Every structure is written in C-alpha cells, then in structure tokens.
Amino acid sequence: MNTLARRLAGAALLSAGLSFGLATTPVLADTPKDTLVMAWQFDDIVTLDPGEIFELSGAEYGAQVYDRLIRFDVNDVSKIYGQVAESWTVSDDGKTFTFTIRDGIKFHSGNPLTAEDVAYSLQRAVKMNKGPAFILTQFGLTPENVDQKVRATNPRTLVFETDKTYAPTFVLYCLTADVSGVVDAKLVKSKEVNGDFGAAFLKANSAGSGPFVLRQWKASELLSLEANANYWGGAPAVKRVLIRHIAEPATQRLLLEKGDVDVARNLKPEQFEPLRGNDKIRIVQAPKGTLYYFGLNQKNEVLAKPDVRKAFKYAVDYDGMAKTIMNGLGTVHQAFLPKGFLGALEENPYTYDPAKAKELLRQAGYPDGITVTMDVRNTSPSMDMAQAIQGSAAAAGITVKLLPADGKQVVTKYRARNHEALLYQWGADYQDPNTNADTFAANPDNADDAKAKPLSWRNAWDIPELTKKTAAAVEERDTAKRAAMYQELQREVLETSPFVIMFQQTEVIAERSNVEGLVWGPSFDSNYYWKVSKK
C-alpha cells in the first residue's frame, strides 16, 4: 500500500472511531476536521454511571454527556448558575431549596427532561449508595426518606430538603458535583435488572442530555463520543471526540507533532520547552484543585504508629521533585485544602530530612528501618513520583517496594483497604472546603462495612473527635469563623494523619494550534469539549 493509501485508510479508521495499538498507529497528515482526537491516560475509569463515577477521568467524561442541576463559573467559582435549573429559591430556615426546571430540554433518547428525572437521579444515587453518594447523604438523605425529601411537585418544580440548616452555598456546590448528573429516568428504569437501578446498563452506556453521546468505551483503550445535534444549548461544532488511551508521554508527543492527535494530556516537563518552539502547537496551563498524596493504611500495625507516620513526611524530597518531575505540573502543597478554597492553608511544614525520619523510626522501635509496599498507578507522573519517593525514603531507612498497576486495579484495591501505602490523586468533588475536609478529616464509621467510605476510612484512620470538628465546620454560617475552623483542621491533619500530601496539580495540555474552544477548568469535571472547533 502506498503512503497516500495508508493515510486515507488511517483517516477512515480514525473517523470510524476505532482504536489502534502502537505498532499499527497510522500515519496521518491531519486528523479529520470534524473530529477532535485526544491522547490521554484514562485507565482509572471504573464505570460511566454518574451515580457511581468517582475517578478523575470518569468525572470529565460525565461533564460532556450529562447536564446537572446547577454548575459553577470556571473563571470565578464563587458564581453558581443554573443548567437544568432555570432558577431557585431557599426557604427562610435554609432547609428547603426549590428549583424551577428549564423547559424544552430533551435527553439523547428524545424523552423530555422534567423535574421527575432530576428527582429520580438524586434518589437513585442515594439508594445505590456508591462512592459519591455521601455528597447527598450528608444532608440527612437516606434510601428510606429520599423520595419524600427530594421530590418533583410538578414537571418543572423540584424540592430538595435538608435535615438542618447549612450554609446555602455548601448545599448548592454539592449539587454541582458529578453525582447530580441528570439521567433519563424512563430509559434507565427500562434497563433495570434485579433492582440494580440500571447500573449494569449505565456502566458502559449513556442516558444523558448533554452535548455529547457515548458511542463506545473500551477500558484503557478508547473513549468515543458523538455530538448531540439536538443539544438544547446548541450543537457542538465537531461531530465526534475520540480519546485514545496512550500511556507513554513520549508517544503522546510524537503523535501530537505528527498531527495524529489534536491534544496531548500527559506530557513530561522536559517536553514542554521544545514544543513551545513549534508554531503548530500551544501549551495551556490549568491550575487544578487536585492533590497528589499517598496514604498509609492504619490496619498495618507498623504504619499505625504516630512516629512512623511522621517519618514518612520527612522522607519525601518535595523540592527535588518540584524542580524535576513536577516542574510545571504542580506546586508543593501539603495541606488538604487546595489553594483557592475558603480557609486553604498555605503552610508547608515538612522538608526532606532523612536523619529526622530515621530518628522517628528509632523512637517508634525500628532502628533498622522498615519495609513497605506502595501501590501506584502505572502512568506519568505518578510512577515517576513513586520512584523518586522510593529513592529518597531509602536514605531515611524506609524500603519502598513499588506495585504498579493500571488505575482501575489500584483504586479497586484502595477501596477494599487492601494496601499498605498507596499513591494517588484526589480531586475536589465540589468547590466548598467540606469536599476535602469530609474525606481527609472525617471517618464516621471505621468498620469494614461502613456506609461512608472517605479517604480516612480507606486508610483505616479512626478519628471520632476530628470527625465532630469537621461536622461542626460545615454548619458554621459565619464565613470568617468557618475559614478559621478549616485551618485548624488542616493543621491537625498535617501533624497526625496517615496522609503525605505533596503537590497541588497544574494540568498542562498541549494542543494543535488549529484547536479552539476547549475549556480547562479548576476540576476535571469542569473540563468541557462542547464548544471546541478546528480551524
């Protein structure tokens, strides 16, 4: 086959949405003008169900396919606006939120979107009680009462009742989260099997009203979206988005420079400068409310010792990684609230001090050091960070044995509390400080069969007093007092927790210069493809 024929064949396959192994990657002059092609590491996707999505890549997928009741302005997160909701009111006692649902929205199926669909979507998430359900159940919603507390009083009116008075913005921010994605109740109910609320169907299918429709998902291989030509907000300019799972940053760069992909999402710092000199490529930086950290499972009697936990915090070369692996990809940040959140603490008390770490281990009863396994997602920069931690920890008397795996395997093990140490990312679920306080500084029930399973639970950190303080902070309506309460919580977590928080992420995206309109927000679920176009 001659070169031109190979290009045409490759373009035809790409347009059809098929995936390629690296050995068969076609040689393309350019990607099709009506198709956005992206190289990205999305091996962490476990499900595509908005009632269960709890990973960064899944959250970004959901933002393209599902509308939500309300959203926040990516340029000013203090501004909340209605999406499915046209407007809303809050009762004088602050416990009843009444939403007027926008008229004229249709699901991909053609079914009209009504308040009944919104109510069902929220009720469904509570009753399924998957990972993100706590975002709703923290308002006193249970499988038993949710049908009464969250209800449609007519096709255009939704009522949402909380158990007590909270800061109104806290409630509203929670309703911007992935778990509030509105599903087509008629379609999903028709797909129910043995009372699963259609979860088996939505794991790999869509039932939304957003600007894109799911066409195909192959785990750790391909995610294909097709434009919703009838989207109520206006049809997307491109007909499809093809996302290829490309694990190697070097391969992503090569495909980008050749024009085989329009966007590369996981490049390394050393690749940025050469690309800045290429007039066909632009580098975009998007600060994220996402943290890189590792957790230490407190079921392990060695890691449960306070001095051992603290030794790990002195065994990380934060500045060294900031200047190399994370150069441009993030900044040193050790508190659980990212910069930009109410009450965020910008103190970084820990520096690399292997001698101090050794002394802490000696005080804990381990003068000869310890050995620990660390699970890590086999992608960049996570694997690079884990190897750097392995090296710096060795000088501190800590032998780290790395257990790399794909994201789905790592997060499944994490949720089962079967790790020793585990390196991962945590992205804010909504733009209120409780989103991180409730996972890093609260653990209402440390039992293996607990209903709520925040990061503290995953690492078996039993903290009844800290949990009470976290609950009190979310009820404080005075903004200044509330900020002070979160600063106190962060200092306590810094001092005593099994979390070694290291960096706040800056997402760096490389785009072909003919790509316009992609929105890279402060969270992965506020990255939007809707208005993308190609010149």
Automatic annotation (TrEMBL):
Keywords: Signal
Signal peptide boundaries: 1-29
Main location: periplasm
Pfam families xrefs: SBP_bac_5 (PF00496)
Gene3D superfamilies: Dipeptide-binding Protein, Domain 1, Dipeptide-binding Protein, Domain 3, Periplasmic binding protein-like II
Domain Solute-binding protein family, chain residue ranges per copy: 79-446
Entry superkingdom: Bacteria
InterPro entries: Peptide/Ni-bd, SBP_5, SBP_5_CS, SBP_5_dom
Compartment(s) where it occurs, according to its Swiss-Prot or TrEMBL record: Periplasm
Similarity annotation: Belongs to the bacterial solute-binding protein 5 family.
Record-given protein name: ABC transporter substrate-binding protein
Species classification: Bacteria, Pseudomonadati, Pseudomonadota, Alphaproteobacteria, Rhodospirillales
